[in-house]
Amino acid sequence: MQSITEPDWRALIRPEISAMEHSGIVEVSDYGRHRQGLIPLWVGEGDLPTPAFIAEAAKASIDKGETFYTYQAGVPELRAAISRYMTAHYGPGLPPERFYVTIGGMQALDLAVKMTVGPGEEALVLAPAWPNFAGALESNGARAVFVELEAGPSWRLDPARLEAAVTPKTRAILFNSPANPTGYVASREELVAVLDVARKHGLWIIADEIYGRLVYSGHRAPSFHDAMAADDRILFVQTLSKNWAMTGWRIGWLEAPAALGPVIENLVQYSSSGVPVPVQRAATAALDHGEGFIAGEVRRFERCRDIMAKGLLATERVELAIPEGAFYLFPKVLHDGDTRRLAFRLIDEAGVGAAPGYAFGPGGEGRLRLCFARAPSIVEEATRRLAAWLSR
User: Fold this and answer.
1) Confidence class for position 16, pLDDT limits 50, 70, 90
2) Which domains, and CATH codes, for the chain?
3) Strand-pair partners of 356
4) Which residue among 41, 75, 194, 269 is the one 20 to 30 A from 12 at the CA level?
């Protein structure tokens, strides 16, 4: 048989896709994934399995034979449950027709980008930022323009800096609050300032508010729902992953004006063709009966936040803002700016897995992201290891 030299396959695909950066979080987690005794704090999820009442709803759906194609927008029962949930927590004027069920929050983000930011265009992204924001833009031929938050005792937004980043190519603002990785929670005043910039320049806002219930003061974080007008160009990205321990179920929703429904349904049809019905039944149960689980998780996360923050600050080797929401610490490690190297060393020498700050873009240099959504005993041991290593 004649031998054939394989082509350079990456050179044969779209160059902008081939050039997309490999995730720094995945690189580190792949390195340490199978280490015996390692405490992994690199991935943004909790350690509890999905509550039984949610899983049972999916099982019942399978037993009923709900295994066929379904509505592109989501089953009516789930859209109604989302409407009830959002109305209870964010106020009136949120009918089922505004909500479109997606394969996780990531598909909701991708659809929002597809509708608003085209090839060669730009979106403003607050930094440090979840890497998938830039990834969603780049995979659609667009570009992220980062606007750094101001670090200090708490992270804050300078609206003037945001507006100064607007160019003729800017089409949207990707706004994440509560924020991954910083724990930044925008005030109502900051949200109004962002709205003012968007209105002045005719921009869309893609609002990622998935951690909105995971806050440590009050019932929920301030939301664009609190300040928006009916004609504001806002798309909301949501997921069931964080609130109800459902990261592996891959279900979320996109909130948009009902008039965009046919467009969104087309995009769903041509990408995923809908979300499996048993998963949607599980989501309905979570929304209708999951308030007690959320309340318990917030209490648990707050305790773990305080354990880790106190232990790390006691070393006097880090600077950090106490997060107001979400479930991450994002400390700056003093005198060690190479957090890629540091993350590998922590795996090898401390037995703790952390996400390197450089993976989160500008403002992440010299920092580590540590997910404290774990049992308090695990967080105590991880903190002990980290503090001992930092204090050497």
Assistant:
1) confident
2) 9-49+292-390 (3.90.1150.10), 67-289 (3.40.640.10)
3) 368
4) 269
Query: Parallel, antiparallel, or unpaired for β 99-102 and 122-127?
Result: unpaired
* Cβ-based neighbours of 291, under 8 Å, separated by 6 or more: none
The predicted-structure confidence for 188-202, as pLDDT tens digits, reads as follows 999 999 999 999 999
Q: Where are the beta strands (DSSP E) in 252-346?
A: 252-255, 318-319, 328-329, 332-333
The amino acid at 278 = P
Which three-class secondary structure state does DSSP give residue 240?
coil
Taking every pair of C-alpha atoms in the chain, what is the biggest distance, in angstroms? 71
What is the C-alpha to C-alpha distance for residues 15 and 258, in angstroms, rounded to an integer?
36
Closest CA to 29 of 359, 376, 385, 362: 359
Distance CA(314)–CA(312), nearest Å, equals 5
3-state DSSP call for residue 239? strand
| CB-CB contact of 35 with 343 (8 Å) | no
Q: Strand 204-208 to strand 234-239: parallel, antiparallel, or no bridges (unpaired)?
A: parallel
